[in-house]
Amino acid sequence: MKIIRNSALVLEGGGMRGVFTSGVLDAFMKYEVYFRYVVAVSAGACNGLSYASRQPRRARFSNIDMLVKYDYLGIRHLLTHGCIFDPELLYDRFPNNLVPYDYDTYFENQCTFEMVTTNCSTGRAEYLCEHSGNRQRLLDIVRASSSLPYVTPIVKVDGVPMLDGGIVDSIPVQRALDQGFQQAVVVATRNRGYRNNGKDRKIPAFVYKNYPRLRVALSRRIACYNEQLEMLERMEDEGTVTCIRPLKPMEVDRIEKNPEKLERLYQEGLELGECYCRTLL
Fold first, then answer.
1. Are 68 and 16 in contact (CB under 8 A)?
2. Residue 33 DSSP label
3. Contact assessment for residue 176 and residue 184, using Cβ atoms and an 8 Å cutoff
4. 222-247 pLDDT, tens per residue?
5. How confident is the model at residue 94 (pLDDT cuts 50, 70, 90)?
6. Packing angle between helix 135-145 and helix 43-52, nearest 10 degrees?
């Protein structure tokens, strides 16, 4: 086993684009490459949990095979249950029954694993850990980190309303460096050079009416993400960051359900992850 002590691991989100990340992390587990500190957001947090519990292919199985079997993602769920995915299936039946999560290994793991959420009251990122053995709190945190605005309900963690960490910190590389690490390995889910060409708009007062600071954060979400992409590429050029990312523009969207596309993206992540691991040998 090789423990990377001088670098942090940063996992971007991206919905179903996260199958790329699951491929990279499966390569890390194949070569027994582990980091002392991991910070992950949204889909990156979901995939990172299986990495932290040392369960190869668990995330791939959940995101591809079980999606085909249970069809747990899509507009149908939003219209019938007010959520773009089936939360009871993903955050209860999967980890506790259908795709059992190895809680014991996770809680015995000595690495620091942080998941990014957005505090709806402050409009700021929070970086949450759960290493005390509280299984439900662990699931609440990862669910909050993955709860997209508008299409999923707000999730409370410790009584605090939370949503997707990607609203304010999609690529938490600065958080990793602030923890004292001089280097970071970032698993990104967009090719180099990608920018979101959409336009930010002021969020009307009736949307999240009880959370004005959340509305402010949502009103500059695209600009914030593009700034982080620019920072990531600058750090990569400077040698502060090693970035493992898709080589071509993405054919998989956030709520992709085509298993062939998902499998191709997973395999790309697996191959690039193995290439990185071989540089460490």
1. no
2. E
3. yes
4. 999 999 999 999 999 999 999 999 99
5. very high
6. 150
